[in-house]
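Entry:
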Amino acid sequence: MADRIASDHESMMTFRAPLETVGRTDRVKVVLPPELDVVVDDVLELILDGTSYFALVESTLEADCVLRRATDNRRQAREADGENRLAAWVDDADVRVGGTVHLDVVTPGHAYGLRTPGTRVVYEATDPPADSLADIAADLDGE
């Protein structure tokens, strides 16, 4: 059974993450703080309004780690396929490009939550997949 943890719990680590656009486009990106335990090409669980999606950690020309998309599964995240749930969340949430969002560390290196500043969210913390399971999944996906 997964543990439940509130975004305002004293053990929750929260960062303010800039919400920017990709170059001169209207596509959004979330700039990840350098303190996070993530690297480029990691696929993370990204929780938006209580729903889990998956996001590929990408790099900018300035070598910042960013999230540009959230999708329904890991394969879509790696292949930049499927509906961009992050863009839809930004459109629906009370956030703006040029501002910040709150990035909650639900499970370090595995699961993170995005929320509108000032809101409270309760997350279900899950364990990251075992390396052997991740390797099996990558093999099944043809990597």
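Residues 3-137 form one domain.
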